[in-house]
Amino acid sequence: MVGAGEYGLFYSLFNFSLLLNILLDFGITNFNNREISRHSQLLSKYLSNIVFVKILLAIAYSILCLGAALLMGYSGRQLYLLAFLVFNQFLSSFILYLRSNLSGLQFFKTDSVISVLDRFLMIIFCSLLLWGNIIDRQFTIDWFIYAQTLSYIITCVFSFLIVISKSEFFKVRMDRAFIISILKQSYPYALLTLLMTTYSRIDSVLLERLLVQGNIESGIYAQAFRIVDAANMFPFLFAGLLLPMFSKMIKNQESVQPLVGFAFSLLFVPCFTFSVASIVYRSDIMQLLYHQHTGQSSILLGILMGSFLLISINYIFGTLLTAYGSIKQLNYISALGVIISLTLNFALIPSLKSTGAAIANLSCQLIVAILQVALGLKIFKFRIDYKKNGSYLIFIILTPFLILFIRSLFSKWILGFLTAIVVSLILSLTLRIIRAKDFLQLFDKGVA
Fold this sequence. Notes:
Elements: H1 3-19, H2 22-25, H3 28-38, H4 43-71, H5 77-104, H6 108-131, H7 141-166, H8 176-210, H9 214-231, H10 233-251, H11 257-280, H12 282-289, H13 294-324, H14 327-352, H15 354-380, H16 386-409, H17 413-430, H18 436-447
């Protein structure tokens, strides 16, 4: 509705607001999730102090983010929109912190509802603005941001009330020694998040800043990458469930291999299937969603769906290593990811533009995934299941051929796309990569 240029401007500003996002959290959310899952009786004490810390961090983040924007040449409307996005980042960060208390207390169902509430409200508000005929003007990107702000505010208030009901008391206070202790312990998590955000999000910012028509190229890139962002909700939410479960199992000296194996199966099968199907139907997807630049964005989608598959794998092993406490090693891997991302983006964007950014993203995610998997295998010394690996190999080989064959059978691509997804999932059940029995056992043990 707003065109590639306007959305590209929003997308680059949004990702710019994400780069310093860690200042809003400083690793507190991951630290809090891990600690509350182990020591639930500390909820009231942690909540009373951390709320005060979050407010201080929000002030620091706002000053630094807007100051950096001025130094990079942002002005006028760009700063106006960025100010709203900065506020939205604070609300989003605060919601994630509140959710970390619920998941740490093992209230997974409540956490799951809250995790989608802001998106659900966003869909309602934007649907009314787009198709409700309540305003007689053309939809603008500003309205999109305002709808996001309102959705976050409602979700934040709702989440806060729930967490308060679970605590014995709540009183905003500043225990200096306690706060310094938390920040020292959470610092490695903060650095990890900063590095991961940088190598994952810097591409669109560099596109907008390095090229003459950077906002348009960033918009074209966003057309494809927002599919990855949307699909990432599944592994992201799954990782939120895994972190407290891994932490508790490691503390109790239980073997995590069964859970890792099941989590990998449950994520890899749908993510691989969706990735391959999206690559095969990439042109149809882009033509359905957009009216401009569909040819170029479909090429980008084909590249970035490879990144999505690798990101899904990183969610499992990154979460496992975080629960184990291997933050130093993860920081080294992520720092390497930043170096690779910056090097490739600066080298490829001037000549290949958005395609170069996509190639840089895929290359970076591949190296990070290889290193995280290798580190996880080394630390936990997982036994190799050759039979299961054989099933994976058959699934990986057959799925692309099945999807290509199904594409040739259906004249309506959406029907073919959905059929391909279903058939591939049936194949995974036939190969016993995913078993209903394992899922029910996991559900009874942790999720329920």
